[in-house]
C-alpha cells in the first residue's frame, strides 16, 4: 500500500492532484483534521484487504495543527510507516494570477493583499517542502502534463527527479521572458528570414533547420551548450531546484531559436533525471500581426 500526503501552496493544484489520484485508484481524503491522521493511517495500513492506496490532502487550512505533523512524521519514520509526501508549488506571480482569475480569497490574506498571504503561507509550509519526496512546480504545467507526472510516480513507479526543464524559444523583439533562468542569443546564426522561400516557414520544418545548421556554426554552438548543460543540470538537481527555464532567442522567435530549442530538446529528451517540455512562445506572432494589420 502507498500512503501519500499531498500538500503545497494554495492554488498550486492540490485539489486537481487529489482528483487525478482518485481516478488512478487511490482513496482520497482532503483536509482531514490532523489529529485524525494517525488513526486513518493505522486503519488503512493494518487492513490489507481494504484500501490499496490512499492520499491525504493537507494544506494551510489546518492552521496551528500543522506543527503536529513534524511529530507524526518522525514517529512514522521510526516505525517504518510507508508514507510519501508530494508538495505542489508554483511561482508567486502564477499563484496571484490564479487567485485573481478565480476571484478567491487567500486563506492567510485576511482581506489584505494576496501576495502577503502567499509569503505567510510559504513560511508555514517550508518544513513540509523540506520533507517532501516529490516537488512538482505547476507554474508551466498543463492539466494533462500534471497528470502525466503523477502517473509516472504513482502508477508506473518510474524514477522521478524534482527538476522540470522548459526549453523556451522566443523573439527578442517581443521581449526576454521574465521567468527565464538561462538566456541564449542565437542571432549570430544564418537567418532564414532573408530567404524568400523560407521567410514564412518556421524552425519546425526541416528545410529551415537545415538552413540554420549550415556551415557547422550551429553544431559548434550546440556542443558548447551541451557541455554547459551537462555540468549545470546535475548541480541544479543536487541543489534542489525544481523549475529551470532555458530561453533561446532570435529576432522574431520563428526560425533560429525554434531550431536550436528543438535540437536541445532532442538531446536532453532521453534523460530520466528531470521532466522536460518545449514551448515556442513567438513562433506565430509575425503571421498574427500581419493578419491584424
UniProtKB/TrEMBL annotation:
SUPFAM superfamilies referenced in this protein's UniProt entry, alphabetically: P-loop containing nucleoside triphosphate hydrolases (SSF52540)
Residue positions binding ATP: 8-15
KW RNA-binding (keyword) present: no
Gene name per UniProt: rapZ
Gene3D superfamilies: P-loop containing nucleotide triphosphate hydrolases
InterPro entries according to UniProt: P-loop_NTPase, RapZ-like, RapZ-like_N, RapZ_C
Binding site for GTP: 59-62
Protein name: RNase adapter RapZ
Amino acid at each position: 500500500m502507498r500512503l501519500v500526503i499531498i500538500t503545497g501552496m494554495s492554488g498550486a493544484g492540490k485539489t486537481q492532484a487529489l482528483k487525478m489520484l482518485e481516478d488512478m485508484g487511490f482513496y482520497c481524503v482532503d483536509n482531514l483534521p490532523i489529529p485524525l491522521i494517525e488513526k486513518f493511517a493505522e486503519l488503512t495500513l493494518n487492513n490489507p484487504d481494504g484500501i490499496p492506496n490512499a492520499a491525504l490532502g493537507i494544506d494551510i487550512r489546518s492552521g496551528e495543527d500543522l506543527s503536529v505533523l513534524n511529530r507524526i512524521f518522525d514517529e512514522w519514520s521510526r516505525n517504518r510507516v510507508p508514507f510519501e509526501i508530494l508538495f505542489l508549488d508554483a511561482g508567486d506571480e502564477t499563484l496571484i494570477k490564479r487567485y485573481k482569475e478565480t476571484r478567491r480569497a487567500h486563506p492567510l490574506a485576511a482581506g489584505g493583499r494576496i501576495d502577503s498571504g502567499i509569503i505567510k503561507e510559504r513560511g508555514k509550509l517550508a518544513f513540509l517542502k523540506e520533507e517532501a519526496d516529490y516537488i512538482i512546480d505547476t507554474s508551466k504545467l498543463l492539466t494533462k502534463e500534471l497528470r502525466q507526472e503523477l502517473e509516472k510516480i504513482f502508477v508506473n513507479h518510474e524514477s522521478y527527479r524534482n527538476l522540470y526543464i522548459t526549453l523556451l524559444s522566443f523573439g527578442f523583439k517581443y521581449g526576454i521572458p521574465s521567468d527565464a533562468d538561462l538566456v541564449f542569443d542565437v542571432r549570430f546564426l544564418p537567418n532564414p528570414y532573408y530567404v524568400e522561400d523560407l521567410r514564412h516557414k518556421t524552425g519546425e520544418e526541416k528545410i529551415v533547420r537545415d538552413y540554420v545548421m549550415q556551415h557547422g556554426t550551429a553544431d559548434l554552438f550546440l556542443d558548447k551548450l551541451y557541455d554547459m548543460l551537462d555540468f549545470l543540470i546535475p548541480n541544479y538537481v543536487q541543489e534542489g531546484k525544481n523549475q529551470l527555464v532555458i530561453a533561446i532567442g532570435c529576432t522574431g522567435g520563428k526560425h533560429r531559436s525554434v531550431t536550436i530549442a528543438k535540437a536541445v530538446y532532442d538531446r536532453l529528451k532521453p534523460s530520466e533525471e528531470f521532466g522536460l517540455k518545449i514551448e515556442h512562445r513567438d513562433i506565430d506572432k509575425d503571421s498574427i500581426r500581419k493578419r491584424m494589420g
